[in-house]
Amino acid sequence: xxxxxxxxxxNYIFSTDHKVIGIQFMIAALCFMFVGGLLxxxxxxxxxxxxxxxxxxxxxxxxxxPGGYMLPDYYNVLFTMHGSIMIFFGIIxxxxxxxxxxxxxxxxxxxxxxxPRLNMWxxxxxxxxxxxxxSGFWVEGGxxxxxxxxxxxxxxxxxxxxxxxxxxxxxxxxxxxxSIFGSVxxxxxxxxxxxxxxxxxRLPISIWGLFTTAVLGLLATPVLAAAMILLLxxxxxxxxxxxxxxxxxxxxxxxxxxxQPLLWQHLFWFYSHPAVYIMILPAMGFVSDVLPTxxxxxxxxxxAIAYASVGIGAVGFLVWAxxxxxxxxxxxxxxxxxxxxxxxxxxxxxxxFSWLGTLWKGA
Length: 363
Prior knowledge:
The protein is mainly alpha-helical. The chain has a single domain, classed as Cytochrome c oxidase-like, subunit I domain (Cytochrome C Oxidase, Chain A), CATH 1.20.210.10. It has helices spanning 8-13, 18-48, 72-108, 116-134, 163-192, 205-236, 261-295, 302-316, 331-343, 345-359, and strands at 248-249, 252-253. The protein has a two-stranded antiparallel sheet with strand order 1-2. Helix 2 packs parallel to helix 4, helix 3 packs antiparallel against helix 4 (116-134) and helix 6 packs antiparallel against helix 7 (261-295).
């Protein structure tokens, strides 16, 4: 290797090559899914053999499992951290970060992503965010335990949740920036760096799925980040965005006034329901690429299935309140969200019909 050649660190650690970054996302996501799986195993142990100790666990969680017996609050911590890790650090980085980075330039004829350095940062924010969230296990009060949905007022005060909940919110903001950076890169690359002659109607269906996913991430993730910032202000500064008047904690009346816990639910689910499609649209796109290959015939109804990806993404922004049917919303509003929820089945059905048409009389 010549003295002017980039070394191992530049080539494989802080790389700007889209293939290397895709592999980094895959390795990191699989590692985080393993960690999330271990937490799930502890929860399953508690459910299968309640009250049975795991003495060796006291060394790792002395505050949550004294003598190896799992405390109820520690169970809440486990399912909070399990859900957060699997969604934010497992499934989304694997399906979007790994496959998207590796495949998009190859499938559209681009040399690399539009912003290689931004792409590198989109990956390296991932372990930073994970370190922030997981460090909650070693702070006073333990890790976040308000569920991955973090509903206030439980998550909104230092009296109800310790510093680990603050770290959780900061970590989600950081991973949100990772998602935004990646989304900007994907959208710009697909729009501007396609090979000559490759129009949108010649793109592989998987690219349609990843493009729609990137748009969803670009539009929805800032709303989640804003919600996390407001939550941090409630916890650290004493504001009342999500904390209502009349709260009593440990027999002490709290000074909060004017907050609305339901505001958190609206902001959180405005991101988290599109996140469902962020997770499934890439997978649907990959299925739409694989089936024609093995059926040895073109995809049936190319334009229909391409527009169905866009349709799922568009309708996905109109269904978030179906998570809130029991929150006391106006029945007319509830009916509206019921109809929009059922409407998602239409473009989804188009995809399934297209897959069946592709397989029909195929190889």
